[in-house]
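Could you show me just one protein sequence together with its fold in token form as a worked example?
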Amino acid sequence: MYQLFKDESWTRLHQINRIYLMVKSPTTLFVYWEIAAVYRDLLCEHLHKDWSEMACFIRLNDVTGVDYNGHNSVAQSMIAVHPSGDNWYLHNVAPCRYFVVDFGVTTSEGNFLAVLRSNAVQTPPEPVATEPSICFAPLNGCSLNNLRQVKPELPVVQTWLPDFDGYSLVSAKEDNC
């Protein structure tokens, strides 16, 4: 009899601080993050709030063509995320641009406090949409009315085919005995 083992010790959390930004398509990014419990506790103590009460955000920064210092992005957008969340898809981003994502919380004054900053990624260009082209071969002057009168061509018989073994031509066997 087989016994099923269930490992309940596995966890997805590694208790490290990390955030990664990845490109899914020219207009979609994916970001995932993890904040160690110790770091969360320090933030809660500093801001005098419980983690479940924190207003958490991810801030998408367009850093194309700038030496990004945390404040000089071309454009920014803020997205509220749940404090227990750990990933997000960012849709409708511009193709051919560089992006960085900050995960952060807001202070009691309403200021954004960046906690983690991601790697920079570049979105690829939008694929060029082309209409499929359909070509029809001519019917050798035949109209649809007399299409049944077209005689198929006979296949060409290769004279060397019986002597071909799949790798090379086999010449007539000679008796060397």
DSSP finds one helix and eight strands in the chain. The first helix runs from residue 37 to 47. Helices lie at 37-47.
